[in-house]
Specification:
Length: 181
């Protein structure tokens, strides 16, 4: 079973990438590929730029990564209540290849932030729009106060209640991704 996981951030210290990586480790026996959005750098989307350069290789490459997956884990960073500019830009480019960016794959949406909100604002936006973009959403989990609940040395969430939520979400994802195979 092939799982693609990434943090929707271009921070080299992304806590969402750490969360997506930890969550993916809860799926026993999966072939997991962690993406780094810095590997999909794109010019700022505009219809003028699109007319000029067409569909860039990085957008096609990202679409291809999703196509190759049986299941996808996205952990959203929240910037001013919404997506990071990097994710939104990539998403806009890829949506011009196919509006069904997630290609009807089973998906889990996560989100975390250092604060008590747990990036729940971006998560609810992503959840609300999921049906428009080919997301077969299995579950969502928001993790507040990331630095209080993450053991950076071991790369694990140390709060049992959150691990339980993540485990349930990964179980649902693995079960659906397994069916699709
Ligand atoms: C421009 C900017 C805006 C931010 N806005 C929010 C916000 O609206 N809500 C929030 O919980 N955290 C906000 N933060 C803090 C982020 O949650 C924090 O930087 C987090 O590490 C981002 O996730 P990442 O490490 O995966 O990139 C903001 C950070 C930046 C740089």
């Amino acid at each position: 079973m092939k799982i693609i996981a990434f943090g929707a951030s271009n921070s080299t210290k992304s806590i969402n990438k750490s969360l997506a990586t930890f969550a993916s480790s809860l799926i026993a026996g999966a072939d997991v590929e962690i993406l780094d959005l810095n590997d999909f750098e794109l010019p700022l989307f505009s219809e003028d730029k699109e007319a000029e350069i067409g569909q860039p290789q990085a957008a096609k490459g990202f679409f291809e990564k999703i196509r190759s997956a049986d299941g996808v884990i996205v952990s959203f960073a929240e910037h001013n209540g919404s997506y990071t500019a990097t994710y939104k830009n990539l998403f806009d480019w890829v949506s011009r290849i196919d509006q069904k960016v997630y290609q009807d794959k089973p998906v889990v949406f996560l989100a975390t932030s250092p604060g008590a909100g747990g990036a729940s604002s971006v998560l609810s936006g992503a959840k609300a729009s999921a049906p428009f973009f080919g997301v077969d959403l299995q579950d969502t989990v928001s993790v507040p106060n990331f630095y209080d609940v993450f053991d950076a040395q071991r790369g694990v969430i140390s709060e049992p209640e959150i691990v339980d939520q993540l485990q349930a979400a990964m179980g649902a994802l693995a079960s659906k991704a397994g069916d699709a195979k």
